[in-house]
Amino acid sequence: MTEGASLVSNAWTGTYRLQLHAGFPLSAATRTLPYLAALGVSHIYLSPCLQAQAGSAHGYDVTDPTHISDALGGESAWVEFVAQARAHTLRILLDIVPNHMSASAANPWWEDVLFKGPYSEHLHYFDFRGAAGWPGRVRLSLLSRPYGESLESGELKIELIDGWPRAQHYDLTWPLAPPSWGLILGNSHRDTEPFSALEALRTLPAPTPDDRAAYIEHTAHARRIWSQAREADQLQSCVRRVNSDQDALHAVLQRQYYSLHSWKLAGELTNYRRFFDITTLIGTRTGQPDVFAAMHGRVKRMISAGEIDGLRVDHPDGLRDPLKYFQRLRRLLPRGRIYAEKILEGDERLHADWPIDGTVGYEFLAKVNRMWMDDQRGHALTGIYSDFTGHPVDVGALIREKKRAILDSTFRVDLDRLATSAQELARSHWRTSDLSPRQLREAIARLTVALPVYRTYRTADTLHADCKRILKDTIQSARLASPDIDAAVFSFLLTLLIKGHLSAAEAAFVDAWQQVAPAVMAKGVEDTMFYCFDRLLSANEVGAQPSALGISSDAFHEFCHYLSEHWPNTLLTTSTHDNKRSEDVRTRISLLSEIPERWSAVLQQWSKMNAAAWQNQPPDRHAEYLLYQTLLGAWPIDRERSWNYMLKACREAKIATSWHEPNVGYEASIRAFIDGVYESKEFIGSLENFLRPLLQAGRINSLAQTLIKLTAPGVPDFYQGTELWDLSLVDPDNRRDVDFALRAQLLERCRTLRSDELAAEWDSGLPKLWLIARTLTLRGERPADFAAQSGYQPLVARGAHLGQLFAYQRGANLIAVVPRFTLTLQGRWEDTRIGLPEGTWVNVYTEATLSGEVTPEVLFGSFPVALLLRQLP
Predict the structure, then answer these.
(1) How many CB atoms lie within 10 A of CB 289?
(2) Residues facing residue 311 across a β-bridge
(3) Which among 274, 261, 257 has a CA at the least distance from the CA of 128?
């Protein structure tokens, strides 16, 4: 096949995400293909499949991007998967990771840097902070306790692995550089010419080509000396001698191109860009052409062979210049699709100049999620939450508080570097040379905290109008909130950020800030604030805003029209591997917004029922409120899953415990409370009684949401397992095994079942699968009706409950109609009806023939949502 050729046609009817790992390798994914082809999706959406860290459950910790992961079956498994996908006329959308790699012994490029330091040909692959890209020594904050204690206890020592020396701390190892080998071998070798020369070269700040040549030559001599000692069986005694002498061991470690520190110091010492706050994931300089080529070589071969039709790009906001990256990637994949894992805040729009096909669908999820929340009762929910927990309800203030806490702890070293760079820039001009360093650092912090989006995208020569507006508004906001900071400091930052052309030093500052900002947002908001403000848990979702409850039909129509006009091929998702809660958990929890009075009453009852479960410990009302909503959303859920979720949620909230400083006593009290709750038959009975009338309403909302996803402008995306009711919580809960055999059996039954026969099948989830399969089949048969050019036209109902009927037309031949707020509506539509466009229409699900004005009772007679197809003469 020619480069960029597709497997079959360009039709994208739907994508289905599969999470690969050692327990579900490519061979297992291959076995799902007949089912997925029968379901009607066009593309298998694979999680990263290149070589990752051993035991990886997700594949985002890539160690070697040049080949398919051995744990997934390797190259042969990939060949078989592609062949079987072709046989089933399925194509592949592949998730790739350009922003970071695993900083581990399994990564040969990383190993080369630790072994050779500034002499490594892979040094520029990684985003180190320092002159010429070399920080002097790489600071590795990975020890379980302080360096001195680790050394003294013997937890840090030298080991021989395959005959070569490595520093070892439990299961972590790092290579020992040749300049230190003489110290290990002893006095007879330490001052020999190769080792003394290497020691002299080790201290050079910026090696020249001659230095590199000398280093290679002396290292070769050192290897020969080491090999001779190995052949003479001298190494074990040399290593024992050093390990028994802490001063000698320290001397060896001091000659490395890295230094070892306690893991708790990562936020203060790390001198390379991490993926968020994960010390074992190092940022890459993918903007460098040779680094891009090295990281995408295997993917390029897939494209050239016509094996993949699209790429999903993980976390492009971490890249220095996303636009330039996407331009380079588009040249690699000229005829396929590219999707960005990009979170858009509020009404933020995707940059129109990015040569991509859209996002992975977080913004769609955020908006369709709000369709099932009654915004008219938001104040009641706020009062219930505040009264019960005593927690603050000012979401804006809470976001600023949590972002600042993360910046001051997890990203303190990044803030310090930004402040130092800004000070140097300020001092380079007489007008700003006397700006206060303390105030400048503080102003940068407040600017970062005030930024309402994940990041801006200015480059040395380009500043889009929307970025300029955001920067000006953000600095103005930070300035107004900072009377203690000289206005000249903010003026300096504003001038720097929005000036027409940036010098190299100015661009370096702006680039670094734009890469730090999304990490602060993600860790401060998604991974902290989302666990602190629990008014309505279904609102706390990736890409969404917890303060936003509900959305009007007009606003959602406007969003869909925007997609139709600008991003008609974007992915539309309702569940992902990054979700805090699956779609069916959310639609059930959202029902509380319809019944706040009932929720308030039962909340008080449950708290009294379970008072003894606190075992005379001070009750944590916030955790209690979180648990009750979680049980409502995910029930039936067993005790262990509840505990695992609550432990993660409490640590992420960082209120009474955290991953960094676990509070064992507090966590024990939460565990005891959960045990007491589960052992209370009175509570479990009350929970199930309260939940019983919510089940059907939640499922109807799930079906309505699914139909919108299947028919709105874009490509519907399904996360593994969610074609049936799926009550999963945040990872790793949402990465549990999926029973594909059951789904295949149910799908076979769907072929003959009529809508009026589904009433007995609700608990199995078959109605959702039935809806998906029928609609995907229609998408495959009539692609033009769902295509971009078919457009999007809202349809407006009339009558007493017109706001509860949501409808729109795609092109001339399709109409989707779904109900809203069915829990409180209880089927009482009164005089509500909707006028259909001229002609005769057939309900795809019930086969009823319709025309003129139609009532909801007719539309939803035997199935709770409707898809109408125009009958041609």
Answers:
(1) 9
(2) 94, 338
(3) 274
Which helix (H) or strand (E) segment holds residue 339: the answer is strand 337-340
SS3 sequence of 751-768: CCCCHHHCHHHHHHCHHH
Mean pLDDT confidence for 767-780: 97
Q: How far apart are CA 367 and CA 582, in angstroms?
A: 15
Rounded to an integer, what distance in angstroms lies between the CA atom of residue 590 and that of residue 633?
9
Contacts of 74 (CB under 8 A, 6+ apart): 67, 68
Burial class (CB in 10 A: 0-12, 13-18, 19+), 210: exposed
Report the alpha-carbon distance of residue 487 to residue 443 in Å, rounded: 10
Cβ-contact 704, 825 below 8 angstroms: no
**CA-CA distances (angstroms) from residue 549 to 257, 377, 593?**
52, 9, 9
C-alpha distance across the termini of the chain, in Å: 43
Contacts of 702 (CB under 8 A, 6+ apart): 583, 584, 587, 725, 768
C-alpha–C-alpha distance, residues 857 and 210, integer Å = 84
Closest CA to 493 of 430, 460, 448: 448
Contact criterion met (CB below 8 Å) for 272 and 262 = no
User: What tokens were used for 708?
Assistant: 């919108």
Identify whether the C-beta of residue 650 lies closer than 8 Å to the C-beta of residue 671. Answer: no
Asked if residue 145 lies in contact with residue 262, where contact means CB atoms within 8 angstroms, the answer is yes
Distances (CA, A) of 802 to 317, 367, 798, 821, 832: 41, 20, 5, 12, 6
- Spatial distance between the Cα atoms of 504 and 81, rounded to a whole number of angstroms: 46
- Interior CA angle at 476 toward 382 and 527, to 5°? 45
- Which alpha helices (DSSP H) does 339-486 contain, by range? 362-369, 378-389, 395-409, 412-427, 437-450, 465-480
CA-derived radius of gyration, the chain: 29
Cis amide prior to 636 (ω within 30 degrees) = yes
- Spatial CA neighbour of 326 closest among 287, 354, 286: 354
What are the tens digits of pLDDT across the range 153-194? 999 999 999 999 999 999 999 999 999 998 999 876 666 777
Please list, residue by residue across 330-346, b when 16 or more beta carbons sit within 10 angstroms of its beta carbon and e when fewer do: bebbeebbbbbbbbebe
**Closest by CA position to 491, among listed 438, 428, 447, 445:** 447
Contact 675, 639 (CB under 8 A): yes
> What CA–CA distance (Å, rounded) separates 102 from 53?
7
Q: Do the strands 805-810 and 793-795 form a parallel or antiparallel pair, or are they unpaired? A: antiparallel
Read off the pTM.
0.95
The number of beta carbons lying within 10 Å of the beta carbon of residue 655 is: 17
| Two structure tokens written together for 403 | 């972002």
Strands across the sheet with 278-283, in order? Answer: 100-102, 278-283, 274-275
Q: What is the mean pLDDT of residues 736-765?
A: 95
Q: Are 508 and 459 in contact (CB under 8 A)?
A: no
- Report the run of H or E that residue 281 belongs to, with start and end: strand 278-283
Q: Identify the residue whose tokens are 């997890």.
A: 410
Structure tokens given for 442: 């503080």
| pLDDT tens digits for range 394-419 | 999 999 999 999 999 999 999 999 99
How far does CA 505 lie from the centroid of its chain?
A: 31
Helix crossing, 487-498 with 465-480: angle to 10°? 170
Provide mean pLDDT across the span 128-135.
83
Whether residue 869 contacts residue 837, with contact meaning beta carbons closer than 8 Å, is answered with no
Report the phi/psi class of residue 170: left, alpha or beta, with left for phi > 0 and alpha for psi in -120 to 50.
Answer: left
Given a contact cutoff of 8 angstroms between Cβ atoms, the answer to whether 48 and 62 are in contact is yes
Relative to beta strand 258-262, strand 15-18 is unpaired
Q: Which H or E run includes 66?
A: strand 62-68
Instruction: State the DSSP code for 526.
Output: I
**Residue 91 structure tokens:** 């194509």
Cβ neighbors of 851 (< 8 A, separation 6 or more) are 836, 839, 840, 841
